[in-house]
Amino acid sequence: MFIEKRIKELGIELPPSSPPGAMYVPVKRLGRALFVSGQVPMKDGRPIYTGKVGSERSIEYAQEAARLCVINMLAAVREYLGDLDRVANIVKLQTFVNSETGFTNQHIVANAASQLLHDIFGESGRHARTAIGTNQLPMDFTVEIEAIIEIRESGE
Question: Domains of the chain, with CATH numbers?
Answer without folding.
Answer: 2-13+28-151 (3.30.1330.40)
